[in-house]
């Protein structure tokens, strides 16, 4: 059976291992980088996943839409928050300020300055702090802090979800979406930009979008360990949010729990040896960790 598996996530999900992976065993001959977002010269878990699925008679087709440094709440769905003094208005963050809705229009992978001057007026401009504010519209009484749902016009501010959606008609056999992320959303929660519950709503929003577009199954997973204090110190809150998102779809057999790599692999040591299941640079998984992650995801889908 053909299993077309797409992924939304960030760098560990797109593939950041130390060497290129290739499945020369049973199943599909998947090789890194996987399209369209895999990184040249770096390993993902998909070759390992293809091998395990092949042992059980399945052919894997990969649709890799994971984006490094991205957040489900801020970058994929979009999020509206109150402007606060000293905040880091990350790229594509929407803020409420002085009666208006504004978007911080930084490119990805940009160093973001803190904001101490609230955006004001009704025209787009770059502040003296160097923040490119784009004026969206006047604020209404209905505007509150929240993550956007697919039926809201500010949903998907960077087009990441639409790119995934455009690939769905190309998928053959059973169409599967895997969700796995955590580091950037943990960072947002840690510095107070997001709130507990935003991560839940992002998973709900992306799952609704996928099911509406014809995906057969959505697996709600979670990313691998990353060192505290910024990252894994907030992981329990994010994992709880995923559980609540799963309960939201209670009774819908199309929505399933995916792999929690933090739980399954544990608190990974930093070790540059590719044979050690760890983090080779303190953040990204080693080749051995990717090998195991692919096995875990295959087992999850098979069961």
How would you describe this structure to a colleague?
The protein is an alpha/beta fold and 303 residues long. It folds into two domains: 2-71 and 148-302, SGNH hydrolase (Rossmann fold); 79-147, no CATH class. The chain contains nine helices and eleven strands. The strands form two sheets. The chain has a six-stranded mixed β-sheet with strand order 6-7-5-4-3-8. It has a five-stranded parallel β-sheet with strand order 2-1-9-10-11, sandwiched between helices. Helix 2 (46-55) packs across helix 9 (287-302) and helix 6 packs across helix 7. It is globular and about 60 Å long. The chain starts with a strand and ends with a helix. The mean pLDDT is 97.
Compose a concise summary of this entry.
The protein is 28% helix and 18% strand. The protein is α/β, with parallel strands linked by helices and 303 residues long.
- Low-confidence runs of at least 5 consecutive residues: none
| Helical/strand content category | alpha/beta
State the shape.
globular
Order of strands side by side in the largest beta sheet?
A: 6-7-5-4-3-8
Summarize the SSE layout with pairings:
Blueprint: E1 2-8, H1 11-14, H2 46-55, E2 59-64, H3 72-77, E3 79-82, E4 94-97, E5 100-104, E6 125-126, E7 132-138, E8 146-147, H4 160-167, E9 174-179, H5 183-190, H6 198-212, E10 217-222, H7 235-248, E11 255-260, H8 261-265, H9 287-302
Parallel strand pairs: 1-2, 1-9, 3-4, 9-10, 10-11
Antiparallel strand pairs: 3-8, 4-5, 5-7, 6-7
């Amino acid at each position: 059976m053909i299993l077309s598996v797409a992924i939304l996530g960030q760098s560990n999900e797109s593939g950041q291992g130390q060497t290129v992976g290739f499945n020369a065993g049973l199943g599909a001959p998947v090789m890194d980088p996987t399209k369209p977002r895999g990184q040249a010269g770096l390993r993902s878990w998909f070759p390992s996943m293809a091998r395990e699925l092949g042992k059980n008679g399945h052919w894997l087709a990969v649709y890799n839409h994971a984006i490094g440094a991205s957040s489900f709440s801020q970058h994929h769905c979009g999020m509206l928050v109150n402007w606060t003094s000293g905040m880091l208005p990350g790229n594509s963050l929407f803020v409420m300020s002085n009666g208006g809705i504004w978007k911080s229009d930084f490119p990805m992978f940009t160093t973001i300055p803190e904001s101490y001057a609230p955006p004001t007026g009704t025209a787009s401009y770059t502040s003296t702090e160097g923040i490119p504010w784009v004026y969206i519209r006047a604020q209404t009484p209905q505007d509150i802090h929240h993550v956007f749902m697919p039926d809201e016009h500010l949903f998907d501010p960077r087009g990441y979800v639409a790119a995934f959606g455009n690939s769905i008609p190309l998928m053959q056999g059973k169409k599967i979406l895997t969700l796995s992320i955590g580091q950037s959303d943990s960072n947002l929660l840690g510095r107070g930009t997001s709130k507990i519950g935003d991560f839940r709503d992002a998973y709900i929003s992306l799952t609704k979008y996928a099911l509406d577009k014809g995906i057969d199954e959505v697996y709600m997973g979670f990313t691998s360990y990353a060192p505290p204090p910024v990252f894994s110190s907030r992981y329990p809150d994010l994992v709880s949010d995923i559980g609540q998102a799963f309960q939201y779809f209670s009774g819908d057999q199309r929505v399933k729990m995916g792999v929690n790599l933090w739980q399954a692999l544990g608190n990974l040591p930093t070790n540059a040896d590719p044979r050690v299941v760890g983090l080779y640079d303190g953040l990204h998984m080693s080749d051995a960790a990717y090998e195991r992650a692919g096995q875990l995801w295959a087992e999850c889908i098979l069961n």
